[in-house]
Design brief:
This protein is an all-alpha fold. It is built from 5 helices and no strands.
Length: 112
């Protein structure tokens, strides 16, 4: 019985870490748009010198990519939360899921 419980608790951890690998693309798109437009207008970042198309082409690409990833991530975590992790509270589960999904991006930033 203990072995099945360990397996059930490690599946969401592994799944969210693996989801973090493709999450690099939507997270990069979000950072690219933020750093080139609103943060650059505030003076917090410098705009990319070759970025002269405006924000619309970036939004046309970023919104579907981020939306599809967000839907897949949320549906998969809803399914795993209902079936695999009975002991964790909802806030703990979602916080841990988000942190594990962001971990590969954070490692890429730290060591890239």
């Amino acid at each position: 019985m203990e072995r099945a419980r360990l397996w059930k608790s490690s599946v969401p951890v592994a799944a969210n870490l693996l989801l973090g690998i493709p999450a690099v693309v939507p997270l990069f798109l979000i950072w690219y748009l933020l750093s080139n437009y609103p943060l650059a207008d505030l003076g917090w970042t410098q705009r990319e010198p070759t970025e002269n198309d405006g924000i619309l082409p970036g939004l046309i690409i970023a919104v579907p990519v981020v939306g599809v990833f967000g839907i897949v991530w949320a549906l998969l975590n809803l399914w795993m939360r209902d079936r695999l992790s009975a002991g964790a509270s909802a806030s703990t589960y979602w916080t841990l899921a988000a942190a594990l999904t962001l971990a590969p991006y954070g490692l890429l930033i730290a060591f890239g």
